[in-house]
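Practice problem 4.
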């Protein structure tokens, strides 16, 4: 039986287009608003949803996502509340893949076995845990795979040919290419450089390659969508939430995601013409 992630990427390939992966932080700016934002994302054009697990020390994230994590924690969002958001989302949507993204500390604190069972029961499809390298696969990656969750690994511009096999060894679902060296949301990569990097990665793995870090506009999303299997947008969406009051945030986020989705969907059609 195919996972939701594999099913979605096969459908995207059949349509001849890239996917849009959207990132939001659970509980930002509060749990009720966060639930409304999540519910609206698929209709706005999100093909896969990454949900950030709020954490006090998000070392790989830039100012925007750090601030979103702080807002979520201040609103009372816990790991249990994050899983409840997914569970409630699944009552209306059983097809959109959900990936939890974050850091190992909250998972370790809860207990790996308990967390994995709760995640599967809630309807989570995959995990991105940025501070566990391949050398630590026994900690979470392999148990997650055994539980039926995809474990999505990150590759970066500094992942060379010697390191890449270790990164790919137990990766599943898709490979996330971080297009810049540094923290999220601070700058963008040149499309030509991304194209070369994606070609190198696709020569090494049959997994879809999603590209993120620094994508902030529909035009940039379209550039990436011409060369990658998916485009990941996080900080720009989180900025929209931060600039909106709670009542307006779901609609403002949805409108922005619609513009990104339009860029992604038109990208290859423009090339074909």
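Answer key:
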């Amino acid at each position: 039986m195919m996972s939701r992630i594999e099913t979605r990427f096969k459908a995207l390939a059949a349509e001849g287009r890239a996917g849009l992966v959207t990132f939001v932080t659970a509980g930002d700016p509060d749990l009720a608003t966060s639930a409304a934002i999540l519910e609206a994302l698929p209709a706005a054009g999100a093909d896969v949803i990454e949900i950030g697990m709020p954490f006090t020390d998000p070392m790989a994230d830039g100012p925007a996502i750090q601030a979103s994590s702080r807002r979520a924690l201040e609103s009372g969002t816990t790991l249990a509340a994050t899983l409840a958001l997914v569970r409630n989302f699944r009552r209306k949507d059983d097809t959109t893949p959900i990936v939890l993204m974050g850091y190992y500390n909250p998972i370790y604190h809860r207990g790996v076995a308990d967390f994995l069972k709760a995640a599967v029961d809630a309807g989570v499809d995959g995990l991105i845990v940025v501070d566990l390298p391949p050398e630590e696969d026994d900690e979470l990656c392999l148990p997650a795979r055994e539980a039926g969750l995809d474990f999505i690994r990150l590759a970066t511009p500094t992942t060379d040919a010697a390191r890449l096999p270790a990164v790919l060894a137990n990766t599943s679902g898709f490979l996330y290419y971080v297009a810049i060296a540094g923290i999220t949301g601070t700058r963008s990569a040149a499309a030509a450089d991304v194209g070369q990097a994606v070609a190198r990665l696709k020569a090494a793995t049959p997994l879809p390659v999603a590209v993120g870090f620094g994508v902030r506009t529909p035009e940039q999303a379209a550039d990436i969508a011409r060369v990658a299997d998916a485009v990941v947008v996080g900080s720009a969406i989180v900025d929209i939430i931060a600039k909106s009051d709670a009542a307006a945030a779901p609609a403002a986020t949805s409108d922005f995601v619609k513009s990104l989705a339009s860029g992604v969907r038109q990208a290859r059609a423009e090339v074909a013409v």
